[in-house]
Every structure is written in structure tokens, then in C-alpha cells.
Amino acid sequence: MTQPFEGKVALVTGAAAGIGEATARAFADAGASVMLSDINQEAGEQVAAAINEAGGKAAFIRCDVIKAGDVKHLVDQTVEQFGRLDFAFNNAGVELERNKLADGNEDVFDAIMDVNVKGVWQCMRHEIPVMVDAGSGVIVNTASVAGLGAAPAMSIYSASKHAVVGLTKSAAVEYGRRGVRVNAVCPAIIDTDMLRRAIEEDPRKEEVHKNMHPIGRIGQPQEVAAAVLYLCSEGAGFTTGVALPLDGGYTAI
């Protein structure tokens, strides 16, 4: 049996660790060629090398998603090196906030909005024309459960992820008839390096985070990756404009 994404090409931002790394590896395991990008060049190159050593096909390009020139170069190089662009997982993002709204900092606001909103917009506006020209393509953006409701002490982050959902839905409607599907994944708390650092600072957080989810545990990056691959698959061919919660039942409460 051929692998489900054999002959296809996927682009993954924020691919040096966590959800992005897991998704890049999942695409490669499913047969796709993968272009990885991140601002962490050393870690990103290591992930790409590991994929190649395991028999996959991957390359890495450093990209700051808030810079139009970086993003254009990334998309252009993906097409030049691999010949096409079938899937894009716009996953690069930041989380820098721990204050109530009135205590917020303008520099933090700008940093979060630049990466989480402008970065996704920059990626989409360069990816979509390539997919439209090809007559097909799938984009998946990383939003958050914070983009589906409130996030106390993270109002700016929440607003940024609501914006990602808005960009996703609007693009899905605008380009659906051109063969391009656009969806978002909305994870709750996922077991990443960022989470582990927070738990090291305050071990009590692990139980708190587990108890936030009715399923009784923290999510795994591979579970988000599986959802991304599903949304990119032919099985999701009638799915577009969706903000899919991956939250262990959090939004069901």
C-alpha cells in the first residue's frame, strides 16, 4: 500500500519542537516531503536531519513569520526544492502573557499580535496563490481553545487566537471554489517543552492542567498532528472553515 501523502509536499512553521515537530514527523511518516521552518535554526535543522535519517524527505529554512520577505522566500523555496505545495500547517506562535487585561503591556500586545495574527496572515497570503494556481491545497492554522472562548489573564493571546479563527473562516469562504480548504486546530493544554518548563517552576500546575480537561489528562503533540493530517486528507474533503477543538472535552463544559 502506498502511504496516504506520498508524492505530496507539506510546509510546517514552528517546526523545531512541540506540535510543529510532531506534525512535520507525521507528514514525513505518511509519505510527504516536508519543508520545516522556525526561528530556532539549530533545533529545526536537527528535526529535519532526523526525518531524513529515518528515511523521510525534509529540508529546513529559517523563517521569521512576521517578515514578508522571509515568508515569501520560504514558500518560494518549498516550491523550488520540492516542486509543489499541497499542505501548509501555519503553527508558529507565541504565548507571553500572564496579566489581566488592564495590567497588559503594549510591547507584549504587539509581540503576540505580530506572530500569532500577522504571522499567520503572512503565511496564508503567500501560500494561497500557489495553491490556487495548482487548483488544490489545504491550509491548517494553529488557533487554540483560547480562540473559542475566554482565557483569563491571557486576553491578548485569546484575542490573537480568535483572530486566527476569523482568518481561517474568511479564507475558507473566499477560496473554497478555487480548490483550497482552510481549517484551524484549537488545542487545549498540550505536553510541550513550554508546559514542562512551567511545571518545573510550579509542580502543582500539572494536576491543575490535567483537571481542566474532562478526559483527565494533558494532550499530546502527536494527537494534534493526527488531527492536522486528517484535515489535510481526502477523508476531510468536505471540511473547510472549521475550528476543531482538540481539548479533552474542555469546551464541552
UniProtKB/TrEMBL annotation:
Record's keyword annotation contains Transit peptide:
no
Q: Which InterPro entries match?
A: NAD(P)-bd_dom_sf (IPR036291), Sc_DH/Rdtase_CS (IPR020904), SDR_fam (IPR002347)
Q: Which UniProt keywords apply?
A: Oxidoreductase
Out of the domains of life, which is the source?
Answer: Bacteria
UniProt xrefs under Pfam families: adh_short_C2 (PF13561)
Q: Which family does it belong to?
A: Belongs to the short-chain dehydrogenases/reductases (SDR) family.
* NCBIfam families the record matches: PRK06172.1 (NF004818), PRK07231.1 (NF005559)
What name has this protein been given in UniProt? Short chain dehydrogenase
Q: What is the lineage of its organism?
A: Bacteria, Pseudomonadati, Pseudomonadota, Gammaproteobacteria, Pseudomonadales
